[in-house]
Amino acid sequence: QDYTWEDHGYSLINRLYPEVGQLLDEKFQVVYNLTYHTMATLRGVDTSVLRRAIWNYVHCVFGIRYDDYDYGEVNQLLERSLKVYIKTVACYPEKTTKRTYTQFWRHFKHSEKVHVNLLLLEARMQAALLYALRAVTRYMT
């Protein structure tokens, strides 16, 4: 069964600790929606599809998949070096080096690469919370 932040995690954490639920949700939304509408040298770009692909790829790495998402987007939008970087930072942060950082998106701005880091770390946090909150839900029922 799907156990999503929007449908299950948020409501449970809100019941257990109301202030934290709202703060976490706002934090996830701010990072998820953050954009300068640029990609490398291009301006006026809608990056929402790319941001969604990064978020869902991080969740996928942790075993969370959504039936209503086309994972073909991940393979179309995320080049191999970016996937390697995301997996390294999300799963083995201690192995992250400057070299791994410089290997992906070589022509992109530093701020765009930092945004990738923000996205993947928040998605990782949400994935961990989903596992923990699902365990709490099972315990309570």
Automatic annotation (TrEMBL):
InterPro entries: Sestrin (IPR006730). One of its GO terms (cellular component) is nucleus. Pfam families: PA26 (PF04636). It comes from the Eukaryota. GO terms for molecular function: L-leucine binding; oxidoreductase activity, acting on peroxide as acceptor. GO terms for biological process: cellular response to L-leucine; cellular response to leucine starvation; negative regulation of TORC1 signaling; positive regulation of macroautophagy; regulation of response to reactive oxygen species. PANTHER family: P53 REGULATED PA26 NUCLEAR PROTEIN SESTRIN (PTHR12474), SESTRIN-2 (PTHR12474:SF2). This is SESN2 protein. It comes from Psilopogon haemacephalus (coppersmith barbet).
